[in-house]
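User: Please work through this fold.
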Amino acid sequence: MTTPPSCTLNCISTGNFLLLGEFSAIGAYEKVIAARPATSVAFDLTRILGEHWLSVDRLTAFVSEIGGAPATDAHDWSPFADGFKNALDKPGAGWTVRSLQWGEERGRDDYEEALDHEGIRENLKSLIRDELLTRVENHITMLERLHRGVYPIS
């Protein structure tokens, strides 16, 4: 078996790193929706959750297509998970929404760093620019509105 070129290894590594971030987001949204299923915001959060699953599908396909084994789980992202659990324990949904927003902002930063990486294939950069980053930015906007009270939170 031959070793893939370094560009391929960089793309596999970057794709899997981004996949881990998406799985982390999925876990966070699932926790919020399970903890507050009857809130007025649950519908919007469920839509965002579905979009994170779309991102997982796209990144998984990319890593597979270039010969890599896609990551399948976020494993233990303890610092974010602990902070998120603390937010769920606070009264009101504001802390929860803000925690989700911080997670989305971290995801945006990860996607932007990947775009700046010289060893990444253009087709991964296109996927990030044209689809994945746009989704994350839309999530941040929606969560900012929720946090400011543009949408009612029960």
